[in-house]
Amino acid sequence: MSPRRRDSESTATARAGRRAELLATAAEVFASRGYSATTVREVADAAGILGGSLYYHFDSKESMVDEILSTFLTDLWASYDRITAAGLGARETFHALIAESFRMIDLYRPAVMIYQNESRHLAANPRFGYLLDSMRRFREMWLSVLDRGVLDGEFRADLDTGLIYRFIRDTVWVAASWYRSDGALSADEIARQYIVMVLEGILET
Amino acid sequence: MSPRRRDSESTATARAGRRAELLATAAEVFASRGYSATTVREVADAAGILGGSLYYHFDSKESMVDEILSTFLTDLWASYDRITAAGLGARETFHALIAESFRMIDLYRPAVMIYQNESRHLAANPRFGYLLDSMRRFREMWLSVLDRGVLDGEFRADLDTGLIYRFIRDTVWVAASWYRSDGALSADEIARQYIVMVLEGILET
Amino acid sequence: MSPRRRDSESTATARAGRRAELLATAAEVFASRGYSATTVREVADAAGILGGSLYYHFDSKESMVDEILSTFLTDLWASYDRITAAGLGARETFHALIAESFRMIDLYRPAVMIYQNESRHLAANPRFGYLLDSMRRFREMWLSVLDRGVLDGEFRADLDTGLIYRFIRDTVWVAASWYRSDGALSADEIARQYIVMVLEGILET
Amino acid sequence: MSPRRRDSESTATARAGRRAELLATAAEVFASRGYSATTVREVADAAGILGGSLYYHFDSKESMVDEILSTFLTDLWASYDRITAAGLGARETFHALIAESFRMIDLYRPAVMIYQNESRHLAANPRFGYLLDSMRRFREMWLSVLDRGVLDGEFRADLDTGLIYRFIRDTVWVAASWYRSDGALSADEIARQYIVMVLEGILET
DNA sequence: GATGAATGAGAATTCATTCAT
DNA sequence: CATGAATGAATTCTCATTCAT
After folding, report:
1. What is the pLDDT of residues B36-74, one digit of tens each?
2. Which of A46, C142, D1, D30 suits a disulfide with C165, CB 3.0-4.6 Å?
3. Least CB-CB distance to A159: which of B34, B121, B197?
4. Subunits with at least 3 CB pairs below 8 A relative to chain B?
5. What SS3 class is residue A155?
6. Taking Cα atoms as reference points, which of B27, B170, B30, B194 lies closest to residue B98?
């Protein structure tokens, strides 16, 4: 509680704040221009500073995406884990996961876009091994929900669950590319309609 | 059938063939590594020639993607136009468009991936204005099919057709990223299941 | 006069100064080796930095010549305009323009050489349209002086003024290629003899 | 006179003709675009063949300029030598040399332009040593004429003959850059007026 | 924290030249 | 004679990164 300590605390906080601010800017730019097509200078420009100045905050361009993606994925999996651990039925779990995914898109739109567009390329780098892990976990999680649903007689048995899985995976995340938090439909409404579509189809019955 | 005629035929063919060959290689590499992350040298390596030699055939890296994408889109729209001009009902049109899309993925997998992953960035360049045109046409085409289907009572009226459109658009093309022509499911089988999924949903009834 | 003020002054000066310094170096090299035969690396070497570093200051090799030439021409025309607006007689204007031209050669020798040697080629590029403008203005300016001189009975009427104009234009600027500010004749002395030569001829009378 | 011999003769002639034709084209292009800014492909395009095909006729781009320049200079010096050996007075020699120079411009316009614009750069190459020789001879020839003229009381003694020499040299050759054989003034008329200008000046007397 | 000026590796592109056909 | 396709070195330009101030 000495002045010195308060100082260093507020400095640390300010620093973290600036860092987060810069990461948000970087994420935005990476998402819209593509990671490898984006120059460090473009990120800096968007942040209103000079290219070199970014290196006071980050080691490298790579460490920026790294932090953007790992922050997002950490939060994502905390949420997913909470849902899958809740002991819900297949259909309810399905519901909850989809809804949560759209909430994540709402929260981390740029990060989701980067995840969606750049994962394949980045994953070649050992540093981004966790991306592969995440994709694997994602697959297992969904297959487990779908397979259980088929077993329970809730989901159709005449469709390839592997295909359904890809179908869900792709459509959910790709929504990040057109979703606008200020658009006509809220994240929750999109999730609701999306769930209806996937569960019941678009045919009039 | 005289030797002379065979000669001039085979040269003409070789000429066009070499170009197509190089474009196929380039498309493959662009698709797998990402356009801007791919170096011209990588394309050349994959083609078994030196970097500079590509410039005998193409003006620039950009003109390579340009040709890859415009060739694909020209063929795609020729097919789509044939279908929409056939005077089918909404549901049959839906069917035919989806099936054709998967056939296109089968035929132009790398081009589709590039279209899917790089369109946004490339479209910033006036040279690629046709990408925006294509996206616009795509949207109009699908909305027209969906709206007609809703009017005809074939498609549900309680879902946002704009949302359905995006849903379809994204899932169809994204399949290019995992589709293997030598995989377990054929393009037609994928299309069939995909259509069932979208039309009837994944719920057991 | 506080240290702070001196600092910021000297930084601002250094900034503009560095650019001007590099341009002076580039002009020197372009003038002596020829613009298109000069490599960016040669300019950088002459400036004591690496090739890539030049691009921190300039967009391209082209923009370097551009700046060199436009700076020179801006100054040149300011001077010429001052003279032609002074309301002098044809012969006095003639005098003043020639003298000023030699002063410009003294001041901008490399730029003049580049102007002289590369204008034709560069002018094909729309970016250098001002070179054509300048040549046109130059022609009009001289023809107007010469024609007025003929009318006033000061210049001979039996010579083609178009020919005289070219004669003057070429000889004046071409002097840049051999003029040395440390040579035996000063710019003013050269101008003086030059004027005598053109006005009175080289014949003993 | 055997058919074989006639054949080889006419082939040789045709070959030489084609060679001269290509050189004329090359000279034109080098003159208008500048030697180092001109690509071999541009020359070939202008000749209606492909880049590589030029190498059937010439060893290199360099050997093309070489042949262009040396052909011109050989002819030029043959003429100059004839004149200086004729034992004329200073003024008559002056007359004859200028007239001959304009005739050369008429005959070898592109070569003269190349000589004028590229000599300095090319001369750095030992292969083009003859360019320096030519320049040196040129200087000596003119200084000798001028000095003799001053001694004989024909030319003014109050002007620096070195300056007059440069003045003549530059204005004469530079005319190649604007001279058109189909222009309003013939080579002879230009020479005539030029001689008057230089000898008597442009002042009305 | 940020700036201005560089570095240096590597990217895209150019171009003279070669060569089998 | 000419072509088509390459080579490979050089060139222009880009960009992540560094660092003294």
Report:
1. 999 999 999 999 999 999 999 999 999 999 999 999 999
2. C142
3. B197
4. A
5. strand
6. B194
